[in-house]
Amino acid sequence: MNIKKHFIERTSVTNKALKVFIKVLHDVPPILRKSMLYSLSAGGKRLRPVLLIATYEIFGGKKEDVLPAACAIEMIHTYSLIHDDLPSLDNDDLRRGKPTNHKVFGEALAVLAGDALLTNAFTVLGHNAETGKIKEKNVFDCMRILAKHAGAGGMVGGQTADLQAEGFLHGKKRSVHLSKTFLKRADKLLNYIHLHKTADLICASVEMGAVLASASLKDFKHLSNYARCIGLAFQIVDDVLDIVGDKKKLGKKGSDARNKKLTYVSLFGIEESNIHAASLISKAHEELDKVSGSAKAKEVLHEIADFIMKRDK
Amino acid sequence: MNIKKHFIERTSVTNKALKVFIKVLHDVPPILRKSMLYSLSAGGKRLRPVLLIATYEIFGGKKEDVLPAACAIEMIHTYSLIHDDLPSLDNDDLRRGKPTNHKVFGEALAVLAGDALLTNAFTVLGHNAETGKIKEKNVFDCMRILAKHAGAGGMVGGQTADLQAEGFLHGKKRSVHLSKTFLKRADKLLNYIHLHKTADLICASVEMGAVLASASLKDFKHLSNYARCIGLAFQIVDDVLDIVGDKKKLGKKGSDARNKKLTYVSLFGIEESNIHAASLISKAHEELDKVSGSAKAKEVLHEIADFIMKRDK
Q: Residue A151 and residue B36: Cβ atoms within 8 Å?
């Protein structure tokens, strides 16, 4: 299969559905809708919707059945980027090659557009109970999964730890110069950050796809493990690209290095980071092999794992 | 009945439950939990939880059955205050007599604590499916009600319109000097702001109480109308207090006047505002009379309507 072609097709389907879901929202001030749509339309691979749909399809369903849930997860992701870019957080001017939300709409509206995308993700997810293909109970469970992975013990917790870790390495250089105790502490903190800041929302995507398909508990667990592995690898590759990546392709400056963030690369160097990411991808394939269903049905998820390792933006 | 005593008792029950729900959240960075608890513990009447519980009790249920939902609505209210106080929005230093969240924890953490309270409100609401007294389907419906009233076409929409209306009256004085066309436009905008910025979350509280009790559609509608009326009155009284209230009792400076906000008072003056609020309260009583159940069962909601009109903070 051609994973790039698959992404192009699924990105297009997701983009169309996102626009529809935002446009049908009732009684929204035009400027707020515009600000929400601006960030939702700023491009991106739609990795999380693609993962959710691909997981659901393993069990024989059609993508149309779960588009609301796929859009909901992308809305959560987009809100997190808007708030993360704010002057008081990462203070980024560019995102996906375009001015960040607060640069265009001002800080107040960027806060509100983020709040709206986060809240309305639950409204859009609720629509999944109306497709006629999904049990209401499964949509309810998805809401709980989404809130868990996106909240204080999930993504927001990860962002908080990420902020706190700024300057953690201040004055310190590569791992050879650091004590074992320091490295252990840093590794633990880094693992918390990666797990929650990035992997949690990727886990939510896959877990929601599984729950919407009424997957067995055994399959759910292996899929969740798969998602955690690719999520952790995704963040390590992101940190590597922040240093060595083509800024034009990334569409942003390397603000992590600028902000002296604690990253896998700043701690262990590029080579070690690549080795660790590769071992996570290998583990992801193993977990996926344990999920019931034909190899063909799971092909997309295997390809996505490899794609995460090979991406250059 | 003694409504003040009722508030004291229910505020205490809600406060205890809120602390428990935040403390049991798993894997949360201590500083984030502290920031969330700080704003949740900053006092307040807990009007929304009290309304939710009182509505549920009309139909014979016990308050313990719906404490998760009551806490969820307060978490949404608290997040909205944290974000509303941010320097880029209302730029308030005091809230309920205490320094605002960003004054204590910094702007970045205030954004994140708000995001966490908003997201975890859905987690806490989800727990209501575990009390054994409430149908899962009803909790699911509550999630949709909450997202609708709190989101882009609800509270966040109202906050956006409120921001946009700043300076709307710039250079203009009392209604006697304003043209009919201008007044009509201003009144429409003001109605949108009040309906969504304030009344929507009060509607959500009452509607959730009704849904959790499996109320009939007819009762639901009358209760929703009641809530809209007291919600609109609440905001008008708030605007009056912003001008004439005792700043010590209010625990904040009158930032609306400072920010040149469009309010009922700035448009129609204090006397007209009080008359309008009173007529809304009267309409609220009428709607409540149409709800099934004994007068005794609905006493608390009647008292709350009157309390909103008479409050001095």
A: no
- How far apart (Å, rounded) are the C-alpha atoms in residues B291 and A75? 38
d(CA A188, CA B33): 19
Burial of A182 (0-12, 13-18, 19+ CB in 10 A): middle
The better pLDDT of the pair A96, B282 is held by B282
Domain ranges of chain B: 3-310
Percentage helix, strand, coil for chain B under 3-state DSSP, each rounded to 5: 75, 0, 25
DSSP assignment string, A39-56: HHTS----HHHHHHHHHH
CA distance A193 to A160: 8
Hey, which residues 69-88 in chain A have their CB within 8 Å of chain B? 79, 83, 86, 88
| Parallel, antiparallel or unpaired: strands A94-95 and A98-99 | antiparallel
Nearest by CB: B120 against A114, A151, A164: A151
Domain B3-310 has CATH 1.10.600.10: yes
Q: What is the pLDDT of residues B107-123, one digit of tens each?
A: 999 999 999 999 999 99
Q: What is the C-alpha to C-alpha distance for residues A58 and A238, in angstroms, rounded to an integer?
A: 28
pTM (predicted TM-score): 0.94
Whole-angstrom Cα distance, residue B234 to residue B47? Answer: 11
ipTM of predicted assembly, 2 dp: 0.94
Measured between CA atoms, how close is B2 to chain A, in angstroms?
37
pLDDT tens across B36-83, in order?
Answer: 999 999 888 999 999 999 999 999 999 999 999 999 999 999 999 999
Q: Is B111 on the interface with A (CB under 8 A)?
A: yes
Chain B residues closer than 8 Å to A123 by CB = 144, 147-148, 151
